């Protein structure tokens, strides 16, 4: 008769197995719900013409005005402005995206006396995409049409962006949005000085940004080339020993320059001429010169300054060469800057075919910071000082421009403390991959999706198959364990029944059991455990 305890034992084994499986499933299944980590937007560009017809109106025969770039903004193509150094955030799970850019454009027209009736500045554009809708914000300074009232507003919701049909989720690399249709908002119409009504179609918006995974390194390819927003500070060359401080004080007393850089874009229209349909040329940087989009940086400045005499002299590394059709071939090298009497002069060795000269003065520039040459926090900084072409400068550019012509502004940064870093160049981010033009006019996106073998992929697409396989293996193992336990207990019960029957025949049956336990494979009477006599 079966023992009444056997059903309980089996039920206990089942309950134990189920409890183990439940614990394992509870520990493993949450892995399938893992989320991708939010990323930081760092570096990139936004290209936008605002409204091409507005540009034409400003520079046309009615307004007779112009526009100029601010904060490192550049031009690209026929009528687009390029804003730089994107900063923001991106959530791969929700697709929420925010990117703010640097730079601005100042429009003026309808000059009356010493002022302009049309006076509009658009700067620091920011694009936000969330929940299937997009908006472009910008800082706006405008003079109201008719009244002349000046209004300055930060981050006005200027334009609605059509992002329908774009899946913003799951991006892992550079995010590019191309030709997003844009329409003027009611707030934007007001900030636009009343020149257009709400709903007016604006130029499409294109952008490309790099992403940084968490607090680690950037996902963008390539290294630092001067255009990635990093400082141009060179590694410190520090002396050791007791005389280090004395040497430093001596250097500062003499006005030694620890590091310096000068930024100059020559002239926007000249760059457009070089790369345009007439010259069909290009420019090439060498010897350490860096491209900042709308300017060239000549780094590694060395020299000295005298705060009392208000003089400064510095020589810089780098060269730029412009080449193209119609005999265009101009090379500028050995760039230098001299400051005296509150005015600066930018020099360069010129090799322009018909004009060659060592240390030719190209442009002069003036700024309040040049009048005293007083370092602030270890840095002498001049930002976008207006520049005018000299007589030698006119010859250097083949007499394309007359002496006195306004050229691109000059920015100068001089570090007199070896711990001070120079201002960073505009960060244009990675170069977007070339794409074919869309025939349907719809916006395009190249937000890179998380791949199954990506290091940063925390999504369920990778975790789920692994987890299910693990669970399946555990289920099989648990089934074998359950059957093994069941057979073991059955064998134990059968062994106990056999022992009871042998004991009823006489004591020798117990001895036989002991012999069987000896385990040499023989009968109990022949085993080593059999007692003698």
- Per DSSP, the total helix count is 9
Q: How much is the radius of gyration in Å?
A: 38 Å
| Strand fraction | 35-45%
Shape: globular
Extract low-pLDDT stretches.
1-10, 27-33, 215-244, 246-253, 435-444, 448-474, 496-533
Q: How is the main sheet built?
A: 12 strands, antiparallel
**What is the CA-CA span between the terminal residues?**
37 Å
Mean pLDDT: 77
Q: What percentage of residues falls in helices of 4 or more residues?
A: 10-25%
Structural class: alpha+beta
Number of strands: 24
Description of the molecule:
The protein is globular. The strands form two sheets. Strands 12, 13, 14, 15, 16, 17, 18, 19, 20, 21, 22 and 23 form a twelve-stranded antiparallel sheet that branches. An eight-stranded antiparallel β-barrel has the order 1-4-5-7-8-9-10-11. It has helices at 6-28, 52-59, 186-191, 244-253, 268-275, 369-372, 391-396, 460-505, 508-518, and strands at 39-48, 66-70, 74-76, 80-90, 97-102, 104-112, 115-130, 133-143, 150-161, 175-184, 201-213, 259-264, 282-286, 290-291, 296-298, 302-306, 311-315, 319-324, 328-340, 343-351, 356-366, 379-389, 406-415, 444-445. The protein is α+β, with helices and mostly antiparallel strands. Helices cover 23% and strands 36% of the residues.
Layout of secondary structure:
Elements: H1 6-28, E1 39-48, H2 52-59, E2 66-70, E3 74-76, E4 80-90, E5 97-102, E6 104-112, E7 115-130, E8 133-143, E9 150-161, E10 175-184, H3 186-191, E11 201-213, H4 244-253, E12 259-264, H5 268-275, E13 282-286, E14 290-291, E15 296-298, E16 302-306, E17 311-315, E18 319-324, E19 328-340, E20 343-351, E21 356-366, H6 369-372, E22 379-389, H7 391-396, E23 406-415, E24 444-445, H8 460-505, H9 508-518
């Amino acid at each position: 008769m079966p023992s009444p305890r056997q059903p309980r034992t089996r039920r206990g084994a089942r309950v134990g197995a189920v409890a183990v499986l439940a614990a394992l499933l509870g520990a493993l299944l949450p892995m399938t719900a893992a989320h991708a980590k939010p990323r930081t937007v760092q570096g990139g560009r936004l290209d936008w013409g605002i409204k091409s017809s507005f540009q034409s109106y400003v520079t046309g025969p009615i307004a007779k005005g112009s526009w100029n770039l601010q904060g490192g903004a550049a031009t690209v193509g026929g009528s687009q402005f390029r804003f730089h150094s994107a900063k923001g955030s991106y959530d791969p799970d929700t697709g929420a995206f925010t990117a703010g850019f640097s730079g601005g454009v100042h429009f003026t027209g309808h000059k009356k006396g010493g002022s302009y009736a049309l006076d509009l500045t658009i700067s620091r554009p920011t694009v936000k995409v969330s929940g299937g809708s997009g908006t472009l914000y910008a800082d706006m300074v405008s003079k109201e049409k008719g009244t002349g009232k000046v209004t300055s507003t930060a981050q006005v919701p200027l334009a609605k962006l059509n992002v329908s049909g774009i899946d913003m989720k799951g991006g892992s690399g550079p995010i590019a949005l191309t030709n997003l249709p844009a329409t003027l908002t009611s707030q934007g119409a007001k900030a636009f000085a009343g020149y257009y009504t709400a709903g007016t179609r604006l130029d499409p918006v294109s952008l490309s940004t790099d992403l940084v995974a968490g607090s680690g390194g950037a996902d963008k390819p390539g290294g630092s080339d001067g255009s990635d927003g990093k400082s141009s500070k060179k590694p410190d060359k520090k002396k050791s020993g007791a005389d280090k401080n004395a040497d430093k004080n001596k250097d500062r007393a003499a006005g030694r320059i620890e590091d310096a850089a000068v930024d100059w874009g020559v002239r926007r229209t000249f760059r457009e001429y070089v790369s345009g349909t007439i010259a069909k040329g290009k420019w090439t940087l060498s010897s350490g010169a860096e491209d900042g989009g709308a300017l060239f940086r000549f780094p590694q400045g060395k020299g000295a300054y005298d705060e009392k005499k208000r003089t400064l002299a510095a020589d810089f590394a780098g060269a730029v060469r412009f080449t193209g059709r119609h005999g265009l071939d101009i090379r500028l090298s050995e760039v230098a800057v001299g400051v005296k009497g509150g005015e600066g002069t930018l020099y360069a060795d010129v090799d322009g075919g018909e004009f060659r000269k060592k240390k030719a003065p190209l442009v002069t520039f003036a700024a309040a910071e040049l009048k005293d040459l007083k370092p602030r926090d270890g840095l002498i900084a001049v930002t976008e000082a207006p520049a005018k072409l000299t007589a030698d400068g006119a010859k250097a550019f083949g007499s394309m421009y007359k002496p006195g012509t306004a050229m691109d502004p000059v920015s100068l940064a001089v570090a007199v403390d070896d711990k001070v870093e120079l201002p960073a160049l505009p960060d244009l981010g990675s170069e977007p991959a070339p794409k074919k033009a869309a025939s349907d006019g719809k916006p395009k996106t190249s937000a890179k999706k998380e791949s199954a073998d990506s290091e940063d992929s925390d999504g369920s697409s990778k975790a789920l198959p692994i987890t299910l396989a693990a669970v399946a293996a555990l289920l099989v193992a648990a089934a074998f364990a359950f059957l093994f336990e069941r057979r073991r207990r059955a064998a134990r019960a059968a062994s106990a029944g056999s022992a009871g029957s042998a004991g009823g025949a006489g004591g020798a049956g117990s001895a036989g059991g002991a012999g069987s336990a000896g385990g040499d494979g023989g009968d109990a009477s022949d085993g080593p455990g059999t007692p003698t006599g």
